Amino acid sequence: MVSYKPLWHTLISRDMKKMDLVSRGIVGRSTLAKMGRNEYVALEVIDRICTDLDCSIAEVVEVTRASAADKESPDA
Fold first, then answer.
1. Cβ contacts of residue 18 below 8 Å, gap of 6+?
2. Which residues contact 41 (CB under 8 A, 6 or more apart)?
3. Which residues of 16-51 are buried (b: 16+ CB within 10 A; e: fewer)?
4. Which of 5, 41, 47, 72 lies 20 to 30 Å (CA to CA) from residue 34?
5. Domains in the chain, please, with CATH?
6. Residue 57's CB: how many other CB atoms inside 10 A?
């Protein structure tokens, strides 16, 4: 399971908004929507974010183990 919570914290600490990533051409709107739902995005997108923000991957995404309840979910 992925979470982009670190990215949202990174943006806040830099006084940026999510849409700044779109307006700067780093991600598209649909990709930003996926990230808002904690869905997988291409590693290339993560790389572009890290490069543009000059940060580590840990400041953008975290991967956690899925719980048993998540595994039983039809969306998993």
1. 8, 11, 32, 36
2. 27, 31, 34, 35
3. eeeeebeeeebbeeebbebbeeeeebeeebbebbbe
4. 72
5. 2-69 (1.10.260.40)
6. 14
The single residue listed with the structure tokens 């709107």 is 29
> What is d(CA 43, CA 46) in angstroms, rounded to the nearest whole number?
5
Report the C-alpha gap between 7 and 31 in whole angstroms: 14
Question: What are the tens digits of pLDDT across the range 16-74?
Answer: 999 999 999 999 999 999 999 999 999 999 999 999 999 999 999 999 987 666 656 55
Write the DSSP string, 31-62.
HHHHHHTT----HHHHHHHHHHHT--GGGT-E
